[in-house]
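Severity: low
Component: inverse-folding endpoint
Summary: output formatting inconsistent between runs
Steps to reproduce: submit the following structure tokens with default settings.
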């Protein structure tokens, strides 16, 4: 059991699933609150302090993406995990764009829930990306979350900046997906199946290509991982 209970808000309109999530969270030592309505979830998320919010996408009165964006704009460091239907990749991408830290797809195992919850909680409050990087003519500003070259600039998410920081620190070698999950996402179990890294890197590469064209800054080494091309 945890010595200090983290507070977790679960916004889920499936009553049986909500109760199951609350039960497993309490069993694992957390203080958990459940809300079945989107509008009430947003109100609770802004009015009370939570270490993490588990947020379903399809909700009555207000959808999860809108809630995520609103909470992220008011509380930038809030940990948020979206819950979406299995295979709904558009929802996953939309969730990340709205500011979610991670996602869980239905149906999911209790083990997967706890792996992702623990990972985001370990990361909460830490900003390893508050650094500045100069790479291939691009200035990566971790404090303001911007990548800029001359008069062109693109906004970055905190996770995209964290990825760049880690790859830059280890620019002399290939970084594996498992290593990114452990060191950037703080997964205790990095063998869990997830496309989180792939989706974040896809978005990051698109932003970088808007600045320097199609010459890759981050290369994929098949079967090995990723390498920052600094030369």
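Observed output (run 2 of 3):
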């Amino acid at each position: 059991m945890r010595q200090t209970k983290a507070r977790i808000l679960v916004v889920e309109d499936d009553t049986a699933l909500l109760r199951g999530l609350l039960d497993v969270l309490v069993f694992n030592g957390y203080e958990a609150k459940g809300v079945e309505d989107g509008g009430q979830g947003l109100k609770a998320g802004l009015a009370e302090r939570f270490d993490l919010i588990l947020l379903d996408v399809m909700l009555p009165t207000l959808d999860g993406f809108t809630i995520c964006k609103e909470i992220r704009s008011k509380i930038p460091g809030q940990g948020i995990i979206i819950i979406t239907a299995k295979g709904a990749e558009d929802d996953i991408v939309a969730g990340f764009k709205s500011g979610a830290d991670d996602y869980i797809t239905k149906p999911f195992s209790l083990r997967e829930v706890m792996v992702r919850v623990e990972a985001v909680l370990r990361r909460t409050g830490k900003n390893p990306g508050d650094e500045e990087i100069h790479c291939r003519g691009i200035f990566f500003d971790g404090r303001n979350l911007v990548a800029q070259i001359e008069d062109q600039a693109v906004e970055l998410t905190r996770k995209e900046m964290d990825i760049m920081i880690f790859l830059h620190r280890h620019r002399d070698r290939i970084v594996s997906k498992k290593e990114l999950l452990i060191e950037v996402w703080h997964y205790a179990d990095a063998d869990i199946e997830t496309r989180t890294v792939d989706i974040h890197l896809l978005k990051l590469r698109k932003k970088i290509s808007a600045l320097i064209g199609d010459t890759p800054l981050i290369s994929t080494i098949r079967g090995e991982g990723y390498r920052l091309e600094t030369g």
